[in-house]
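Students often ask what a holo structure prediction actually looks like on paper. The answer is less mysterious than it sounds. You provide the chain, you provide the ligand, and the output is a string of discrete structure tokens encoding the 3D arrangement of the protein together with calcium ion.
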Amino acid sequence: MDLNSQTAYVSDNEPAWKDGQDGRIYKVNGSSRMIKAATALTIAFVIVLAAQMVLGQGDSDPAHSGGTVKKNSIGMELVKIPGSRSYKMGSPASEDLRDADEGPVRNVSISNDLWMGKYEVTQAEWEKVMGSNPSGFRDCARCPVENVSWDDAQEFIKKLNARNDGFSYRLPSEAEWEFAARAGSSTPFSIGEKMSPADANFDSRYPYGGADKGQYIVKTEPVGSYKPNAFGLYDMHGNVWEWVEDIYVRAGYAGMPADGSANSSNGDPNKRVRRGGGWDSWGKALRSANRGWKNPRDRNKNGGFRIVAIEK
Ligand SMILES: [Ca+2]
Ligand SMILES: [Ca+2]
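The corresponding structure tokens follow.
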């Protein structure tokens, strides 16, 4: 295996990539003001959520069908992702700081309803299934598990399936992941054109779309620390990169399956796609269309996953 050539192409969080994009060193400033603003936003959001719960409006809007949540046998929360739809996967050439592998934009069908982890798989959930915790960041049971390879994630899924709890589990396909991350949006992020430190955990010295800079936290945070998207999914942008099932093909989507299934046959199986960016990524890497990849045996402190479940 040629690790060097791999490093040369993987990009979204490597220093070389950062240097290539922008020679300036940004100064972190206004961080306490930023934290106050984030706290105020969080409080406002909790009030809105509480009001929705009291009024019972959480499930009434079909565009927000993420209101439907089930728990599996280990207490993992699964959000219903509506099927029978198609969406435009990939980014248009006009999207700022995109990479060529995000196109061409094409229609992809998501035929069946599926359930997706409301959060990244947590350290506590991993430990419950696997009996150990490989994470690099310690003393945070509700933080996402990281330091897990694609192969490790498959092992977790195998053990979870062996519990026979009414769902059959797997990694999301790349197409399912992007559909879930967009949650109906066609902007760079599910929240719009900008990515600021109040929106996700990333290296917010390098925000996107003209958003204010903030303090770089330099670690994972407990899942659900930021606002969910319209499907009710948390941390699709940032915190940890998320493995998906697909083999990465640098040439992009031409000739790839358009029925929502994973690409498991084209390209080099030693390149598996990761999505969504992580705590050490620049804002650009968190875009819904962005694609990264790693060797399926690589373990990284910035990488975890979430699962998809199909009702049996
Ligand atoms: Ca994530
Ligand atoms: Ca990329």
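Residues 1-11, 13-35, 46-65 have pLDDT under 50 and may be disordered.
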